[in-house]
Amino acid sequence: MKLWGGVMWVPTQDEAVLIYARFLKARHGVAASRFARKKASALQDEGDLEGYKIWNAVADAVDRPAVWPQPRLLDKGRAA
Question: What is the count of structural domains for the chain?
Fold first, then answer.
């Protein structure tokens, strides 16, 4: 199956964090950050530290002002 002439967009991890943060905010409103932090905590309890890190990044993005000028990058030293 070819999409758009064989080209498919795959979001970076940072883009995925912002996309999911926007989705959670639209779906859960003011409870979005709490939902994401609860999920992060559950993953940490299960020993999934990568999942914990990503869900906390989602919660941080939800907590930012709506303009979200610059994403917080998960890997330091990279430019957005």
Answer: 1
